[in-house]
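README, section 4: Worked example with a bound small molecule

Sections 1 through 3 covered apo chains. Here we extend the same pipeline to holo records, where the ligand is supplied as SMILES alongside the sequence. The molecule in this example is nicotinamide-adenine-dinucleotide. Nothing else about the input changes; the structure line simply encodes the ligand pose together with the chain.
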Amino acid sequence: MKYLTNEKLTIVGAGGMIGSNMAQTALMLGLTPNICLYDIYEPGVHGVAEEIYHCAFEGANVTWTVDPEVAFKGAKYIISSGGAPRKEGMTREDLLKGNCQIAAEFGDLIEKYCPDVKHVVVIFNPADVTALTALIHSGLKPNQLTSLAALDSTRLQEALAAEFGVQQCKVTGAYTYGGHGEAMAVFASKALIDGTPLAEKKLSEERWAEIKHATVQGGSNIIKLRGRSSFQSPAYQAVKMIEAAMGGAKFTWPAGCYVNAPELGYKNVMMAMPTVIDADGVHYTAPSGTAAEMADLKASYEHLCKMREEIVSLGIVPPVSEWKKENPNL
Ligand SMILES: NC(=O)c1ccc[n+]([C@@H]2O[C@H](COP(=O)([O-])OP(=O)(O)OC[C@H]3O[C@@H](n4cnc5c(N)ncnc54)[C@H](O)[C@@H]3O)[C@@H](O)[C@H]2O)c1
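The generated complex, written as structure tokens:
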């Protein structure tokens, strides 16, 4: 079995549903043989490790621990789904306080034990705010830490494919930007349906509103269908993000990244942008769209600013003016 790298990948929250799927996916895709599974819940992470051992992946060198020092020391890549998931009726924002406290501790562990980590992907919700918290606390450079935001775009792609009866991969150019929450901004003015612009497909206003709603509610729909928060798609997409950071195929679905671009009107937030992840980390470009799409993005950005102010007022991160003291790279 040929692996992309031998460097250590640590999966945080490995005892949970996304974490356990990430361990398996990372080995199936041949990312690295050296994977450390970490969780605070010992039976969970022990059980996942046993299952992985029973897969008998060739050349794998998987360890598990509940000791953060063992987990984080020497880690060159980290993916974290280690936080509470949503239950039916909850929004991602309902998780804000508890999961942002976990994110602050997560960032502190990175700073203490693996300041030379190369890339970190944060999954636990509300992902843009937990990722921002982790970035401030970790001391990492903004291009080294991303949040999982791709599923909103893959859900939009799927909804458009179903509407027009085409294969999912034949829908291109349809993305969501801004927050990974109910206030996400849907950009479809450049979408192509099997090569034909969406604008020429005569989609009624009403139907388009329903598709947008289905996209925004895509995560809640999985909770309704399966009785729990989605785990296969986040595991796969997050591992693909790390694969790109390891120098594998570039990751081109939107990722949540740190944006401080007053010239674009967005300051000091993590949000989904048109991005590429490669061995140098994440790179973003300015989103462009119709006036209505840009207005939705502005509203999504403002919602993110409100959540940021909430974690400042809870004392989880300092006010923006003091971020540089905590992380000189910001
Ligand atoms: N960004 C996205 O697109 C996306 C999609 C789906 C789910 N999520 C989020 O991912 C998170 C995980 O979901 P799940 O279904 O795997 O949940 P889960 O409950 O199955 O697993 C979470 C695991 O994290 C562990 N954990 C909790 N606190 C920890 C800490 N401080 N350190 C280490 N581990 C810790 C728990 O013990 C548990 O094993 C949730 O917050 C969920 O909302 C994000």
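What to look for in the output: The pocket of nicotinamide-adenine-dinucleotide is lined by residues 12-13, 15-19, 39-41, 44, 81-86, 95, 99, 102, 123-125, 127, 148, 151, 180, 229-231, 234 (CB under 6 Å). The longest helix spans residues 291-313.

Section 5 describes how to batch many such records.
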